[in-house]
Every structure is written in structure tokens, then in C-alpha cells.
Specification:
The protein is built from 2 helices and 2 strands. With 66 residues, the chain is an alpha+beta fold. The radius of gyration is 15 Å and the shape is extended. The relative contact order is 0.09.
């Protein structure tokens, strides 16, 4: 397995910690792996204009990539 390291600011670290607790993840690295997997799914399913449609029940939200 490849090893990568990088620096993150305090705000991102706090976000990772909250997500770690929310998803009962074993580590912040696990949270990042889940986030990358989700981003990969989003990239494969984006619209031709780069937007992504998120559905929750009957509600739909279109998110434009900037």
C-alpha cells in the first residue's frame, strides 16, 4: 500500500474528527477514503455541464461544479 502524507488546517482537522465520530470510522484516513470513493461516484455520474443532481426522497438538488 502506498503511503501519502500532507498537512491540513485546523478547520479541516475538526471536520474530519466530526465525520470520524459520525460514521464511527476507525481513523481520519478511513474518512478520507470514504470521501474519495464518494467523489469518484460523483465524477462518474455528473451531468454534461459538470453538475450533479442529489435526490433525497421527493426532493432534488442540482449542484453546479465551479
Amino acid at each position: 500500500m502506498a503511503v501519502t502524507s500532507f498537512n491540513i488546517d485546523d478547520k479541516l482537522n475538526e471536520t474530519l474528527e466530526r465525520l470520524k465520530l459520525h460514521y464511527n470510522a476507525g481513523s481520519k484516513a478511513e474518512v478520507l477514503r470514504k470521501a474519495i470513493a464518494l467523489l469518484n461516484i460523483a465524477a462518474r455520474n455528473e451531468e454534461p455541464d459538470g453538475s450533479l443532481v442529489i435526490r433525497h426522497g421527493d426532493k432534488e438538488t442540482k449542484v453546479l461544479r465551479k
